[in-house]
């Protein structure tokens, strides 16, 4: 508790310099991670000409709220990292702090891990920080394509679940003719922060053909399709 209080006080009283200050450097300011993977946010700091006592903190800002994830302290006598991650899936590398490495590792990334991460260091009463933005994406399930025969028309239903961000849905046949503009597509955001997509295509086909529903996740550059012979 006292360590947390100390760092919070330092955070409030320190002279905050501009983000990206050369004393503290986040190596990759924009990171995209796949849900369920591990991601490392690399942050390094330089102590040339500064005292060896260093306090710091990792902060996550998401949906307007800022949460403390880790506190750390470095001195010639002590290297200490305190974990405040509720999930227990994030960690630092205490032995690396001595070398100016305060990188953060998040395991089994979830949608709620997305947001802005600030690497904040206090040296000699002055604060230095740099930030990285973590975007979490999720791969859609293989689409399920079903056919319902109706009078004088064919109705096709395409469903794919648990993806992020919102998918691009395309309908195309084996003659490269597109029906995407004729389809009605609904996206539902689940409590997990993932999208379920349901697209319906209803039309009269004058000849036999193979029709495909394609679900595209643009950030992942991933497309999944299901086809049916009519």
UniProtKB/TrEMBL annotation:
InterPro entries for this protein: CD80_C2-set, Ig-like_dom, Ig-like_dom_sf, Ig-like_fold, Ig_sub, Ig_V-set, IgSF_BTN/MOG
Chief localisation class: membrane
Signal peptide feature range: 1-20
Recorded coiled-coil stretches: none
Mode of membrane association: Single-pass membrane protein
Residues annotated as domain Ig-like: 22-135
GO cellular component terms, A-Z: membrane
Compartments (UniProt record): Membrane
Record keywords, A-Z: Disulfide bond, Immunoglobulin domain, Membrane, Signal, Transmembrane, Transmembrane helix
Designated name of the protein: Ig-like domain-containing protein
Species this chain originates from: Lepisosteus oculatus
Lineage start: Eukaryota, Metazoa, Chordata, Craniata, Vertebrata
């Amino acid at each position: 508790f006292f360590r947390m209080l100390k760092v919070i006080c330092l955070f409030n009283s320190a002279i905050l310099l501009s983000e990206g200050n050369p004393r503290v450097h986040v190596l990759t300011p924009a990171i995209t991670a796949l849900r369920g993977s591990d991601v490392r946010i690399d942050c390094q700091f330089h102590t040339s000409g500064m005292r060896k006592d260093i306090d710091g903190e990792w902060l996550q800002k998401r949906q307007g709220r800022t949460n403390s994830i880790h506190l750390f302290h470095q001195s010639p006598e002590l290297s200490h990292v305190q974990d405040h991650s509720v999930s227990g899936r994030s960690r630092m590398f205490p032995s690396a702090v001595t070398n100016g490495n305060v990188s953060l590792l998040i395991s089994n990334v979830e949608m709620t891990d997305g947001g802005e991460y600030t690497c904040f260091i206090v040296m000699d009463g002055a604060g230095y920080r740099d930030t990285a933005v973590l975007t979490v994406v999720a791969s859609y399930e293989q689409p399920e394509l079903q056919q319902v025969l109706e009078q004088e028309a064919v109705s096709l239903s395409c469903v794919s679940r648990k993806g992020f961000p919102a998918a691009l849905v395309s309908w195309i046949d084996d003659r490269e003719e597109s029906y995407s503009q004729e389809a009605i597509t609904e996206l539902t955001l689940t409590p997990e922060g993932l999208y379920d997509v349901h697209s319906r295509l209803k039309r009269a086909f004058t000849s036999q053909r193979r029709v495909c529903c394609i679900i595209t996740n643009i950030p992942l550059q991933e497309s999944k399709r299901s086809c049916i012979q009519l």
